[in-house]
Predict the 3D structure of the following.
Amino acid sequence: MPERIRPGGQASAPVTTESVAARTALIALALAFLSLFLILPVIVVFSEALRKGVAFYLATFTDPDAQAAIRLTLIVAAIAVPLNMIFGIAASWAIAKFEFPGKSLLITLIDLPFSISPVVSGLIYVLLFGGAQGYFGPWLKAHGVEVIFALPGIVLATIFVTFPFVARELIPLMQEQGNTDEEAALTLGAGGLRVFLTVTLPNIRWGLLYGVLLCNARAMGEFGAVSVVSGHIRGLTNTMPLQVEILYNEYNFAAAFAMASLLTLLALVTLLAKTLLEMHYGEALARPPRM
Amino acid sequence: MRFKQPNALPGFGLTLGYTLFYLGIIVLLPLAALVAQAAGLGLGGIWAVATEPRVLAALRTSFGLAFAAALVDSMFGLVIAWVLTRYRFPGRRVLDAAVDLPFALPTAVAGISLASLYAPTGWLGGILAALGIQVAFTPVGIFVALVFVALPFTVRTVQPLIAEIDRGIEEVSATLGANRWQTIRRVLIPMLTPALLTGFALAFARSVSEYGSVIFIAGNLPYVSEIAPVLIVIKLEEFNYPGATAIAVIMLAIAFVVLFAINVIQAWSQRRFGYA
C-alpha cells in the first residue's frame, strides 16, 4: 500500500491520486450529500422530540399505550432473536462443516427473506393464517387460536424478515475457519457438544455477536411486515414503530418523535457497536457483510 | 453414492434437519401459500389486476422512482466510497459509520423524519417552498426517501473493490502517458463497473420493495404518489386477498429478475476481471 495522502500536504505519489482541488471538492460533495440525506434526518428526530421540552418528552413515556408498545417490542425481539440465533448456528454448522449436494440452493433459500418486500413478508402470513380466507384461518378460528392481529403473527413476521442475519454472518466465517480445530478436539476425546462449546463457540463469538446485533436492530425496528399482520390494536398489538405511525397520523408529532428517538438511539448504539466490532475484531468477522 | 462426504465431526443430521425444518415452516410454507393463491388466480387473473389503471400507475411510480433513486445513489455512492477509501480527513470514520444509518434506522423513523424535514413547514421544505419546489406529498418526496434507504447498498458494494485496486495499475497508466482523468475513465471505472451494476441492482430492488420510509412523505395519492406496496396494504384491508397476491407476485417476479441479473453480472465479471 503506498503512503497515505493528506489533503493539503505533499502528494507522495501524485500520479495515483487527484489534484488537491479535486480531492477537496469530492470530499465536500460526499460530506454534503451524507449530511443532507443521512445525518440531518437523525438530528430532526431529536429536535422534534424535544420541541415541547424535556418534561413533555419524558411524560410521553408514562402513557400506558406507549409502555405497552415498548413492552411488546421487547417481547417480540426476545422471542425472534434467540430463535434466529439458534437457527443461524445450526445452519452454519451443517453448511460450513460438511459437504453435501444442494448446499448452494440451501444458502440461496436462507437469503430469500432479504429479497422480499416487507409488505409481502406480512402478506404471506395473512394468506396462511388470516381470518376467513387464510388457508389455516377457519381451523385456527374453530380452535380459538389467534395468529393474525395477535402476538404470534407479529413474532412470525419478525422472524421472517430477520431470518438470514445470523446465518449469513456465521456461514462464511465458519467456512473460512475450516474443521481442523474441531477435529483436533475430537481426537483428544471431547464429545460433540463439548467441541462446539469450547472450540467452535469461542472462534465465532464476535461474528455471532455481530449477527445478533444486526438481527436485533431489525427485529425491534421492523415496520412493513409487522404493520400488515398487527391490526394496529392500541395497547395490544402495536410495536414501537407502529406506535410511531399512529401518533404521527394523529398529528401528535412530539410524542411520535419521542418514541422514534428511542428507536434512533437503538440504531445509533447498534452502529457504534458494529463499528467497534469491525475495528477491533475485524479479523474474527466474515467479509464485510450487508444488512 | 453417499449424500454427505465422509467427515469426523458429529451433528450433521441434527443441524441439517433442524435447518430444513425451521426454513420450511418460517419461509417455504408461507411462500407456498403465496404461490398457491397465485396459481388459483392464474396468469389471466394476475394480468387483470396488473392492468387495472390504479395498479398500473402504482407500478409505474414504484419502478420509475426506484430506478431514478438507484441511479442517483450509484453516482453518489461511487464518490462517497472513493472519498472514504482513498482520502484521509478528519471525521472520516464517523462518516463511514454513518453510511449504514439507513440499514440501522427503523424505516418508520426515517419516514416521519424525512416527512417533517421536507414538509412546507420543515427545515428543508421551507427553503424549497420559497423556491417553488414541493417535495413532501409528491413523487419527489418518494424519490428522496428511496435515495435515503438505498444509499448503503451502492456504497458498500463498490467500497471493498476500490480498496483492492492495485495502485500499480494506475502508475502504469500514468507512465503510459494518461492524465488522471483518462486513468479514471479508461482504467478505474471499467474495473469498478461490475460492482457499480451490482450496487445499482441491489439499490433498485430495495427501493421497489420499500414501504415504511415512503408512506409518510408520499401523501399516497392514487395515480400520483401511490407506490405498489401501499396498494397491497389497501387491498388487504379490503380483504381482497387475490388482488394483494397479484401485485405481490408481480413485485416478486421483478425481484427475482434483478437477483438473476446480479448473478449474470457477477459471472461476467468473474470471466472478464477474475473477481465477482
User: Anything to note?
Assistant: The longest helix of chain B spans residues 12-50. Residues 39-273 of chain B form a domain with the MetI-like fold fold (CATH 1.10.3720.10). Chain B has twelve helices and no strands.
